[in-house]
Design a protein that fits this description.
Helices cover about 25% and strands about 20% of the residues. It has seven helices and 15 strands.
């Protein structure tokens, strides 16, 4: 496919937006070596200057009046948005509102300190518990904020962070441990099992699954109870790719943070010992 054909595809997929960035499914992923088409809106477009980049296959360029510049043309490069914590971020123990909220939900201060949990007291993110995300080298790769108030959306992620290719507690994926890695949906679910859990911040995307499939560590896929079928499908997909992944199905209407740890440990031991998916549904 020629560049002008890619631009036609991108324009067809774009919707009017007043935001700084737009995201669409990348039309180039299959042509650039990916085994299937992008379905996770991996191509990000800077609406102010026309530069775009796919975070899945690396395709990048610039859109101008329905024309596209080749990624090898001279000119301004795509500039990644620097990741920063909210300006009013403070450690969780310095924010009584956030600390009490988390303690009521069963989180102890020692775990929160280890995870670097904080709180935004003022400004745009006021009232949110902030959970920093660090990359493989320990760099700040993003953060996710959970509101403690009656606010929408419940979760807010850092500007410039592409959720489709990163997990909460991302650095743990690259740790080679005997303890299985738990893969779940919500950051607070993962925090409950810190440091041995990561959260996809929703259902795992194709890119996230590709990351998991490359790891040798044993994994437990534990999605919310209403998504147990998807959890089973993901575990089987990862096993077909060579990973040691097993699903644990929870009761409908529950999540990992609400489930007793002893119950999860028993199911995990069974799954690992017998190399089989299991469930604790009643």
């Amino acid at each position: 496919m020629y560049f002008h054909e890619y631009i036609d595809e991108i324009n067809d997929r774009l919707s009017p937006s007043n935001s700084e960035y737009s995201r669409v499914d990348c039309p180039a992923c299959e042509d650039r070596g990916k085994d299937k088409a992008d379905t996770d809106r991996s191509l990000s477009i800077n609406n102010s200057n026309g530069f775009f980049k796919c975070w899945r296959c690396g395709f990048k360029g610039r859109i101008f009046d329905h024309e596209i510049e080749d990624e090898d043309d001279e000119g301004e490069e795509w500039e990644d948005v620097p990741i920063e914590l909210p300006s009013d971020f403070v450690p969780i123990e310095q924010a009584p509102e956030g600390l009490h909220y988390m303690q009521r939900r069963g989180f102890d201060i020692a775990t929160m300190r280890r995870a670097g949990v904080g709180f935004a007291r003022h400004g745009k993110h006021a009232g949110r518990v902030i959970l920093p995300i660090h990359g493989q080298a320990g760099e700040l790769a993003g953060w996710v904020g959970r509101t403690t108030r009656d606010a929408s959306p419940r979760y807010w992620t850092a500007q410039g962070m592409d959720r489709s290719r990163i997990f909460y507690n991302h650095a743990e994926i690259y740790k080679e441990r005997e303890t299985p890695l738990i893969v779940t949906e919500g950051p607070l679910d993962a925090l409950k099992w810190f440091p041995h859990a990561v959260a996809a911040m929703g259902k795992p995307t194709d890119t996230q699954k590709e990351i998991l499939a490359k790891r040798a560590r044993q994994m437990l896929i534990i999605l919310d109870g209403d998504a147990w079928r998807e959890g089973l499908a993901i575990a089987r997909e990862l096993r077909r790719a060579g990973a040691k992944a097993y699903a644990i199905a929870l009761n409908a209407g529950t999540d990992l943070a609400e489930t007793k740890k002893d119950t999860i440990r028993k199911a995990a031991n069974f799954a690992i010992e017998h190399k089989i998916d299991t469930d604790i549904r009643e």
